[in-house]
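Good morning,

Attaching, inline, the C-alpha cells for the sequence recovery test we're adding to the shared suite. The designed sequence is right after.
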C-alpha cells in the first residue's frame, strides 16, 4: 500500500510540474515543435496533465473513480507521448520517461480498481 501511495504522490507532482511547463515554458514550446506538434496540441497536453494531476489528488482523498480515470488518462497520454518520441527517432534514454510514467499510471489504475471498484 505504501508503494501505491508513493506512486500517486510522484505522479501528481510530476504531472503538475510537466503540465505547467507545457503551458508556460519556452523550452517546451521548442520541444513540441521538434515533436512536430502544434501549439494547440501543446496546450491541450499541458491542460490534460494539470487536470489529471489535480484529479488524482482529489480522487485519492474523496473520489476513487476520479483517481482511476486520471490514472488511465495519464497512462494513455504517456503511451502516445512514447509513440511520438519513437516516431521522431529519439533515443531510448529520451523516450523512456514517458514509458515509465505510462506503466506507473497503469499500476495506479489497476490498484485503484482492485481496491475501490472491483
Amino acid at each position: 500500500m505504501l508503494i501505491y501511495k508513493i506512486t500517486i504522490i510522484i505522479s501528481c507532482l510530476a504531472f503538475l510540474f510537466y503540465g505547467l511547463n507545457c503551458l508556460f515554458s519556452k523550452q517546451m514550446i521548442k520541444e513540441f515543435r521538434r515533436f512536430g506538434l502544434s501549439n494547440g496540441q501543446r496546450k491541450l497536453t499541458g491542460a490534460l496533465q494539470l487536470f489529471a494531476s489535480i484529479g488524482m489528488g482529489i480522487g485519492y482523498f474523496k473520489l476513487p473513480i476520479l483517481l482511476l480515470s486520471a490514472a488511465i488518462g495519464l497512462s494513455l497520454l504517456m503511451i502516445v507521448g512514447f509513440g511520438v518520441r519513437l516516431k521522431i527517432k529519439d533515443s531510448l534514454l529520451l523516450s523512456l520517461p514517458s514509458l515509465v510514467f505510462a506503466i506507473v499510471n497503469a499500476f495506479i489504475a489497476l490498484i485503484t480498481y482492485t481496491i475501490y471498484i472491483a
